[in-house]
Amino acid sequence: ATVSLDTIASLAKRRGFVFPGSEIYGGLANTWDFGPLGAEVKRNIKNAWWEFFIQRRDDMVGLDGGILLHPRVWEASGHVEEFHDPLVDCRNCKSRFRADTLLEERLKISVEGLSLEDMSRAIQEHQLACPVCGRRDWTPVRQFNLMFRTFIGPVEEQSTRVYLRPETAQAIFVDFKQVLQTSRVKIPFGVGQIGKAFRNEITPGNFIFRLLEFEQMEIEYFIRPESWPETFEHWLAEMASFLNWIGLGADRIRMREHGPEELSHYSRRTVDFEYSFPFGWKELCGLAYRTDYDLRRHQEFSGEDLTYFDQERNERFIPHVVEPTMGVERLFLALLVDAYHEEPAVDVNGKPYTRVVLRFHPRIAPYKAAVLPLMRKPELVERARDVAAMLRQHFMVDYDETQSIGRRYRRQDEIGTPYCITIDYETLEDRAVTIRDRDTMEQVRVPISRLVEELGQRLAA
Ligand code: ATP
């Protein structure tokens, strides 16, 4: 049975993973802050991604492009023209919806190939009731561009109007020439980037699934045009093995091929990795074959030569790209849902209770270990603090001396800490501690002198 989104959101709030944004001011709808534990998880996701896709490969380099780019970039990329969703308003209660979602979810009509007029007509003909107020008085369907706009310098000045980037990819194309010139890369090679992206989504929601502001981890992998089919297969396999590497259950992931009508303006083939979220199978991340669309357009719009010279073949061409893209927060949500388990258990006093445990992969868990003195006695506390200080040189470690040991175990289970290390009176004599395994709840005794090594091995296993 899948956990409900409410359960996940309330655990996330209670334990400091995700807070509603600007809460002391009454909140700002659909914005979120990542608390102390959420910040760790996001860092772990991003570090894992960077290690897996950039550090461990000899054909990848990184980039950290700006959020603000020249406005022409978004004309060249097609985002000014194409990056919009169909919008419809209820005239009565002023609620605003994505017309395509309304048609698909309420009327079960496929929107593939429908024009704005077709959508307006379908809404009329089916007498669609507003999901909020129940009335049937709709505006015509119109396009709504998802890019956030802002200004550099005095607001009056037209020429300084810029967009917050809706995807990180474009900086990679814009800097393509400079990466070539400075890093001696040869095709095939990729450029990877992690950073914020912004989309003025009409219907954000489902907790942190669809956000206005989120982080993307994107790769543009540059290839010769004819090699795209096998490159595409390679990256499908790489993405699947990354998801597995960070502990996401394969049984809740499936691949879905985009139909011809569904493809974005730049793509010739797209496959989504979908995850079985509490609200259904939804896109987790995706792979797109963007052809040479972006480099060609930037060459045209900028007037710069963006070709690549293949020395072996003595040939000049515009590289094609295959693009694996992932959203940090969406992965975070999938990891939370995947990790969440409830199970019957018995506490240290023999009392039954429902154990809530986040079975995060150690790579993702915010704390790798928690150090717990059995009781709040000065001699135990002092030794426990020393142990925590020693471990902190190597891992993110929590330290907790409040409440009963049983409650402290429960807290660590609920935040997914793989190992609890207990310091008791015996420790003072034998210089050993107890390691409790989150998943098996087994306890073993380990000398303090071997603790770093023991934990390191267990976490890497
Ligand atoms: P959707 O169909 O859900 O709107 P998309 O197909 O527009 O998404 P892409 O443009 O392919 O998404 O973006 C790449 C990745 O960025 C997505 O797979 C997702 O993980 C993430 N992402 C996209 N939009 C959002 C958003 N509004 N909030 C959080 N993550 C997002």
TrEMBL record:
Known catalytic reactions: tRNA(Gly) + glycine + ATP = glycyl-tRNA(Gly) + AMP + diphosphate
GO terms under biological process: diadenosine tetraphosphate biosynthetic process; glycyl-tRNA aminoacylation
Annotated ranges, domain Aminoacyl-transfer RNA synthetases class-II family profile: 6-373
Main localization of the protein described in the UniProt heading: cytoplasm
Species, as recorded: Thermalbibacter longus
Lineage of producing organism: Bacteria, Pseudomonadati, Thermomicrobiota, Thermomicrobia, Thermomicrobiales
UniProt enzyme class: ligase
Protein name: Glycine--tRNA ligase
Key word Protein biosynthesis present: yes
Any one GO cellular component localisation term in the record: cytoplasm
Cellular localisation: Cytoplasm
